[in-house]
Structures are given as C-alpha cells and as structure tokens.
Write a structure and sequence with these properties.
five-stranded mixed β-sheet
C-alpha cells in the first residue's frame, strides 16, 4: 500500500463469475475512506435508507461487526424473505470475511481500521432465491473474492487512467457494444 494514500475517497469494483449453471455472479462496488470525510458522511446517510430493504453492517456473526465498519447495500430492492436471507446471510458473511482478510493481509492498514469505513453495494440476482439448486458456497466464493478484489483495486486506484486510455478502443462493455 502506498504510504501517501490519503484515504479520503477510494472507489473500486470487481466482478467474479459464478460456476456454470449458477446465477451467483458477484459485482460489488466499493467506497472506502475516512469516517470524517465524504465516505463517512455517505456511510452515515445510508443508515437512514428507507426504500427497499435497509442497508446493514457487515458482521461475521452476531456481535462480531468487522472493522473498518462496513455497510452492505443491495443494488436491487429485496422484496421477499428468501432474498433478504441471502443478503443478510451468505452475502453479508462473505463481505465481512473479505474485509477482515484485507486487514489481516495488510491491504487495509490495521492501525486505521477505526478511522476508515466501507460502503459495499452488492448484487443479488433475483433468480437466486427461487433456484432450488442454488449453491450458497459458490455465492459465498464469488462475493468473497470480488469484495477482496474491489477493495484492493479501490486502494490501488485501479484501473489507472493510463490503462483506461490504452484500452479505450479495445475493451467493450460486457453486456453489449453501443460504441
């Protein structure tokens, strides 16, 4: 980690694809920054969310909230108990474990865990809750790996502007090519 990192506002994202036959792709979008900066203000505002299912802290288990404090926010409105259970179970657990492992591995400096906070926007494909063959271990894996990668990218300011410029004409959007 660059010792000159100011930790005011870092954004990152990652996509990790599910195994064949699963809709458990993970695509977290991460903001990480100081609690006394813009990310901290956004974090506090997320606590007042009222539309759809509210955001929740990333916990490893009851009474085990991770540090830096991390809030998980669903990218889609969760309309039923099955999706809420996936969000507050598998996805929350994977997010919390990824954050803690980033501290253990030195990606997030341990001495700053009480001065930083993380907002993690998470995707749950609505098909997952209805899938009788849902592989929760794969859902955990994709969310864990993608969250760790998104945090690493955020704090390394990746991709760099040089990479983006170099790839402007060669990399297309995954869903379709509108250019």
């Amino acid at each position: 980690m660059n010792s000159k990192t100011n930790y005011i506002f870092h954004a990152g994202e990652a996509t990790v694809l599910a195994r064949e036959g699963q809709a458990t792709d993970a695509m977290p979008e991460i903001l990480i920054g100081r609690t006394d900066g813009p990310v901290g203000a956004a974090f506090a505002n997320m606590m007042a969310q009222s539309k759809g299912h509210t955001a929740m802290f990333a916990i490893r288990a009851c009474n085990q909230m991770v540090r830096p404090a991390t809030i998980c926010v669903p990218k889609v409105t969760l309309k039923d108990a099955a999706n809420i259970d996936l969000f507050g179970g598998v996805v929350q657990s994977a997010t919390a474990d990824a954050v803690l492992d980033c501290v253990i591995e030195g990606v997030i400096p341990q001495q700053l865990v009480n001065e930083l906070c993380i907002i993690s926007l998470v995707w749950i494909d609505p098909r997952c809750a209805k899938d009788e063959q849902l592989d929760k271990k794969d859902m955990y894996r994709t969310n864990y790996e993608a969250t760790k990668l998104a945090i690493r990218r955020a704090l390394a300011n990746e991709p760099s502007i040089e990479e983006l410029i170099a790839n402007r004409r060669t990399i297309k959007h995954d869903m379709d090519d509108w250019s």
